[in-house]
Amino acid sequence: MRRRSTWISAAAAAAFALVGCVTINIYFPAAAAERAADRIIDEVWQLKPDAEKPRTEKPAAKQ
Amino acid sequence: MRCAFAAAALSAVAAAACAAAFLEHARELSVTIGDLETPALSARAVSLKFSGTGFRALTLDIDRVSMAGRDWRKVRLTCPDFIAAGERITCSQGVLHLDGQIPVSFTYTTGSGDFTVELKPDADETWRIAGRIAGGKTTLQVKLDQARLTRLASWLPPSESKITAGRASGTIDVQGTGVTAHLQIDDVAFADTGGLHAGEKIGGTLNVEAAQKGADWRWSLSAEWRRGEVFWQPFFLAATGQRLRVQGASSGANTSFRDGVLELQGIGTIDFNAQLNHSKAELETLQVRSSRLRVPALYEQVLKPLLQQTSLSDLRTEGEATVALTVAAASIASVDLELHDVSLEDQQQRRFALYGANGRIPWRREAASAGEFVFKSAEFLKVPIGGVRIPFRLRSNGVGVTSVRVPILDGALQLRDFAAGTTDDGWRWRFTGELEPISMVQLTRAMGMPEMHGSLSGVIPEVRYRRQTLAMDGTLVVGVFDGMVRASKVEFIEPFGRAPRFHADIDMKALDLELLTRTFDFGTITGRLDARVSGLELVDWQPVRFDARLESSDGNYPKRISQRAVQNISALGGAGAAAAIQRSFLRFFDQFGYQKIGLSCHLNNAVCEMDGVERAPQGYVIVKGGGIPAISVIGYNRYVSWRELVERLKRITQENVKPIVK
Amino acid sequence: MLHLTWLRVAVFTILLGATALAAAQANLEINTPAVAAIQKSMQDRHAQLLPLYSSGAVGLTRDGGVALRDANAVPLAQRAQVNALIAAESQDRAALYREIARANARPEWESDIRATFAQRWIDKAQPGWYYQNAGGAWVRK
User: Fold this and answer.
1) pTM (two decimals)
2) Which residue from B386, B361, B381 is spatially nearest to B371, judged by alpha carbons?
3) C97 and C55, same structural domain?
4) Does the pLDDT value for residue C48 go beyond 90?
């Protein structure tokens, strides 16, 4: 019985996770897209000449 | 005394004038004519008033005049010196009140029907119309002097384009059913609302002869365009004295053009015939044939404005071309292009050039045809290309070439089974072929790259381009640095786009390290190198992802590495390592032995994960020493930013110019 | 016991979903060579487009592109050039939206990205520039 309940909960978790994944897949991050658009438009139209150069590198390497 | 009657024709005016002759004792004579209606003109509430000494001051008031779909309100003609003597009516100092005051004079003889009207709307502007109204024998002479064309704008049929300025001088004669016009026009401007069809400061001459036969008109026209410019999407043309002669016949349904000749100064002439359908507003048929057109003038005057922002926008051209085109059932049925010793050269950037091109390109909508294209020599990215003769087959939507050999330097590119065509999803093409050995020394020298040794040769498996993706089936094999380079899974997405993406697996076997290191000025390493780059992904020619492994090839051969090469390899791991050698006794040696060299980089997210031939404490071995004196190079940085790595490589090649002296 | 497990699973799932959402919400990837190349090309072209926006010759379309509105403000000899500029800019913008979607491994987002950009181009346009309203008519900002 115990084994069975574990199995069921595992299956349920998998199902939930799956549903969760699907939800995320179709979700469009409007706010993030807007921020990305703003950053690109500001650069293309040179709206903020003193804006920090956003194309910074990732922390290079573990030394 | 009031005299009121409604008239159905203009002759009523004359009748009223007759009535006035009997009433000399009255001080003012008013004649209310009422409404006048003719097919061409209608006037409402027309009234005449004669006043002054001998009733010689005339005032004509019309509440509304409608003519050719246009209305004027409160029109008044005053004439202080109106004379009606016998059959002759004259008014030499009249004023027409119509959108301002226009001086006007006229005469009319009732018996013969002769009349003259002269309008002077502006100081230097005269419209003079003389003629005789006599049914079928009506004659009319119009003489214009600096006539403002804008006054005609509201008379023209409504269309997209509007005349906004311009003057015309000249004569228009109407004799019965014939019309002859000789006009000179100046400073004409027209534009449509979007500005896609517009002209400015247009000047020239226009001669028209026309005759009416039943419902049809037969006409001939000749014109010369001397000044100004026109933008007619997508063409921009400036006046160079172009001449046009054409005859035609127009009916309600269509207009046909015969024996049309367009002379383009400096370029050549174009003959044409056409039939235009009025209701559909389309060319039903068209036949165009050019003389030998001079390509340089054609390019400068006609084509160059069209080609701006393309790679063909800055050409030096030579040669001649003939063009013929037919339209049937309102779509293009055939195009024939012939080239006579045409040369093209990309002037500033020198990316390409084509010399001595001749050819015949006969395209038919309904049939296949065969053509030929030949050129004496060419240049691509500064690499000289020899003479080529290309016979081809043409279909309505594609082209095919069985085999063509393109000489490049001391070798050649052999193309086979080339086929190209358009489909719903754009252009598609494919070919197979092979490279006959081309000297790398000559090739790299021509392209201005570091001089490489070896030769470029290989088999080109099927290359396909479709849906903006160039893909290669099979493996491209290139012999270089005395070894073999194989490229497979090659895919090139949007090669002509802004950010081309390139995917491939590249496998290199037994490259001669000595040739390689000498070429890139990296110090000297003798031996052989194998390299495998899998999952290579370039975007805009910059690596985004790959899994690369460089390794000295197995086998027995001298394995020596110069001190400079050791320093350079060490420098790749960071600046400190190179200096360390300089401080040790190793700096006394010029060359070292090695057993194995290996370096791998797994690039992802702009970070390169590095490894060597084997593990070392806290690091990995890049050069494993062997022989005497032996040297090992150990890397400690496993993760290096790709940008940093490229910077280091650049620094190495720059620093190598001057030796390090400590 | 069973209920407790269920609760755990539910909480775990919600947490998992929330973190994933937060990650997605955090930022859109635009630091790729392709996006950089397109952006550079648009930036270089902007000096030529700027007077055309100001004169009203070119306007911003409701689908995130640019279009010819009224070429009458442009000298005749340069009108062909305006067409070429518009064609190049439109091509770049389409490529930009596609590349951002690609960079985030979500090609299906392209139209959403295009719509977001369309709105932001218009929001950030200078007063006096023209844009298309939802009905496609030109409006002066």
Assistant:
1) 0.77
2) B361
3) yes
4) yes
